[in-house]
Write a structure and sequence with these properties.
By secondary structure, this protein is α+β, with helices and mostly antiparallel strands. The chain is about 20% helix and about 30% strand. Strands 3, 4, 5, 8, 9 and 10 form a 6-stranded mixed β-sheet that branches. It has a 5-stranded antiparallel β-sheet with strand order 15-14-13-16-19.
């Protein structure tokens, strides 16, 4: 390749803020693989956020980029899979596979698209020092003149209207989008620097702490707490709003607490939904002691390999190639402890990202921790976002 901007280049990043700041340019935050696209004639290279090549995994996208882009250019954007219910990150993850035969098959079954949102170079000109407003205008013109752009290559929506951005923040979540990105219109492109802002949805949920994985340094510290939720209650059941009898409140300073009479607690239907893991090392060691009274044999746990039935458990991660070789074992706990966590959004039946621990909730009955508490955004067709 002979371009004014050559790989490896790390993309410009965003730092999280709580509110959408005024006076900037706003775009939807896509939930896919961040990617830089380098085209020089027939040569197309797609690199990841960490500068690794992803070209071989997306042959259908390479063809679409050749059709849509000018002969020499560098773009920043996101690779996505558009599923029936919006963005499908899980299907996108499956596209990264070492077997060429599977790559070809998945290219036909779950084809990807590219959403462009910045232009780093065109022709012989590097645009890194140009203001974003000018780069955006040139990107829009570039994609308007391309052939077959609508099929697999898209221009992300953008606005400088703060109220419209706020509506996008609420509305576009129904298509699986992740929030809003805000960019200074006069800013240049700064690789690997947090020169933009991201505003993501933040919610809380009360979850059952059903186990923990030891820390990588040893069994004397907690690595992550495993979280579970129960199915939505049957509205016709007399017990719909009543928890299992016999669960006593936990002492305020002792998350392990106790259950009345030491009775076993039924965990039938408890589904694994994710983990929370951000603790200081001293707290990780304290948790091992505090949770010791809740440790039970695995065969008595609702997530025992032989007894979970169709309920999602931590063992299901072993089906993913991303978890190959990872130790999925955990310390099983009697499912009586409740933790409040912060999360951004769900991906199917689980939290999309690692949650943030808020506090233990000794006042909550674990069987009241159901999927019904989670917000369900109104579904939006992805084509309404892309236009």
């Amino acid at each position: 390749m002979d371009l004014p901007v050559l790989p490896p280049v790390k993309p410009m990043l965003a730092r999280a803020v709580a509110e959408i700041p005024p006076g900037l340019v706003y775009e939807p935050k896509w939930d896919g693989f961040r990617a830089l696209v380098f085209r020089d004639g027939d040569d197309v290279e797609i690199t990841s956020r960490t500068t690794k090549s992803m070209t071989r995994y997306f042959p259908e996208l390479v063809a679409a980029l050749r059709a849509a882009l000018p002969a020499r250019c560098v773009l920043d954007g996101e690779i996505i899979v558009a599923g029936e219910d919006g963005l499908d990150f899980e299907a996108l993850q499956q596209r990264v596979h070492p077997a060429a035969s599977r790559v070809a098959r998945l290219a036909a079954q779950t084809p990807v698209s590219f959403v462009a949102f910045d232009l780093l170079a065109v022709g012989d000109r590097a645009l890194l020092d140009e203001p974003f407003a000018r780069r955006r205008a040139q990107l829009a013109e570039l994609l308007r003149s391309g052939d077959g752009v609508g099929a697999r290559v898209h221009l992300t929506p953008a606005t400088d209207d703060l109220e419209l951005a706020r509506r996008w923040f609420d509305q576009f979540e129904g298509a699986g989008l992740d929030g809003i990105i805000a960019k200074p219109p006069t800013g240049g492109y700064e690789p690997d620097r947090r020169a933009m802002f991201k505003i993501k949805h933040e919610r809380t949920a009360d979850c059952v702490v059903a186990g923990y994985r030891p820390h990588k340094t040893g069994a004397d510290a907690v690595g992550s707490l495993l979280l579970g939720l129960y199915p939505d209650p049957d509205p016709d059941s007399e017990d719909a709003n009543v928890g299992i009898a016999g669960i006593a409140g936990h002492a305020a300073g002792d998350p392990a607490g106790s259950t009345a009479g030491g009775a076993a607690v039924d965990g039938e239907g408890l589904a694994a939904v994710g983990v929370t893991s951000a603790f200081a090392m001293a707290r990780r060691r304290e948790l091992v002691s505090e949770l010791a009274a809740l440790v039970i044999p695995l065969e008595e746990h609702p997530w025992a390999p032989a007894g979970a039935g169709g309920t999602r458990t931590p063992w299901d991660a072993g089906e993913s190639r991303w978890a190959a070789g990872r130790d999925l074992s955990f310390v099983p706990l009697r499912p009586v402890l409740v933790a409040e966590v912060r999360y951004d959004h769900m991906e199917g039946p689980r939290f999309r990202h690692t949650t943030q621990f808020v506090r233990f909730r000794p006042d909550r009955d674990p069987h009241s921790c159901t999927f019904a508490q989670l917000e369900r955004p109104v579904r939006v067709d992805l084509t309404d976002v892309l236009g």
